[in-house]
Amino acid sequence: MQESKDIAALRLRLHEIQVEHRDLDEIIERLTQFPPHDDLMLRRLKKRKLLLKDRIAILERLIEPDVPA
Q1: DSSP letters along the chain, please?
Q2: Helix 39-63 vs helix 2-33: angle between axes, to the nearest 10 degrees?
Q3: Contact 15, 50 (CB under 8 A)
Q4: CB atoms within 10 A of CB 14
Q5: Residue 3: predicted pLDDT
Q6: What is the pLDDT of residue 66?
Q7: Quick one: CA dihedral 11, 16, 21, 22, positive or negative?
Q8: Segment 4-25 mean pLDDT
Q9: Cβ burial, residue 52 (10 Å; 0-12/13-18/19+)
């Protein structure tokens, strides 16, 4: 029972991070389309986006681990 609650919590967190990642992608796209843009802010947003991508991968592995056949 506790394991299913843990998985549900992981799935919820995964969804939240995916939404934030998508939002950052849109923000970065808009900033690059309409100069002048703040290079420092763009670098920080891209760094945050990469961090979120790594967290997404970790959560996906926790939810559905690769089990050798």
Answers
A1: -HHHHHHHHHHHHHHHHHHHHHHHHHHHHHHHHSSS--HHHHHHHHHHHHHHHHHHHHHHHHHS-----
A2: 160
A3: no
A4: 17
A5: 79
A6: 77
A7: positive
A8: 96
A9: buried
pLDDT at 11 over 70: yes
The two structure tokens encoding residue 7: 């998985």
> Tokens 């995916």, residue?
18
Q: Read off the pLDDT of residues 37-60 as tens digits, 9 standing for 90 and up.
A: 789 999 999 999 999 999 999 999
User: What average pLDDT is seen over the chain?
Assistant: 92
Structure tokens, 37: 């843009």
Dihedral angle computed from the Cα positions of residues 14, 42, 26 and 15, in that order, rounded to the nearest 10 degrees: 10
